[in-house]
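User: Run a structure prediction on this.
Assistant: Running it now.
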Amino acid sequence: MFTKFGTLSFVSFLPLLWVTVLQRKLFYPSALAALGFSAILLGRFNISTEMLPLASLMPWTAVSLVSVYQVEGPYTAIGMVSIALTGIFGVQSALRAIDKQDL
């Protein structure tokens, strides 16, 4: 369970890589983005059954739905797609930002 949670958390935090590359001279935007992602990730413990559809769409709360709560049905698939799309977006955006940097 912890390995799955850690791996999915890592993937959902990949957009932070993009923010960090964009703000390479400024530490504070990167730190604020990390705090924001962490706050959303920690809010996963207060998910009610009425909030399952929305929680499965947000990748940071979907991590806990898939790994800790192990919900069944469409919420698992929606959560995994949400996490995967966020990871892909983060890596592609970071690579694009690295290519545009002046060396």
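The two ends are 42 Å apart (CA to CA).
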